[in-house]
Amino acid sequence: MITFFRKIRQKLFAENKFKKYLLYAIGEVTLVMIGILLAFQANQWKENKAERELEIKLITEINNGLKSDLIDVKINNVWQKRILNNQYKVIDWLLSDKELNDSVTYQFSMATKRTSFMVSSAPFESLKEFGLNKVSNDSIKHKIIRLYDVLYPAYEKVLNYYYMHDDKLFEAGINYFNEWTMSPDAITTKPKNIMALKADHTFLMRLKNLTNFNNYLVGTNAKMEKLLIEIIDLIELELKK
Question: Model pTM?
């Protein structure tokens, strides 16, 4: 009987020892898993921080470029409207029986001016190189894409057409002017041979065609200015987070 109870005690002791070992093993595994999870989370935090820092750098560069573009767009908007307004006045004068005066000379000078368009494309190219998905704010990303991939290219394309048709206008009117200056601040375009100029249908039609392109430029300038302000405001908010 004593031997029987001794065996029972030994068995219970062994079972208790095994339970303690099992609990110890589970605790060890749990600690290892927690350590791995914490290390993973720390690494993930570092990666997220690095991604955020890169995003901030990229959108800051974009923002600086957009602010520079906005200045150019606003200046162009003022000049294109002024040019278009004077083109309409010249067309009205050509279709009238009014004589030449200083106002008409000024209008001719303004009607034949050109603007230039230079955008800061480097920040956007840099963003594309890193990946547009680096911009976490979808609204900012979509507006940037619309500006750089739609409005800017369309404007530049039409502006080149405008230059081409302005050259054709010059070809049509070369015999009616002693000087033809396209500089925005020069007032030198004074027509001569008034009767022949007013009777020249080709010159009139090319000027009208020029106003069609200018109308588009004025309208697109307004769209670009609005979108530029929207993106800049959104980026400023994003950078404050």
Answer: 0.77
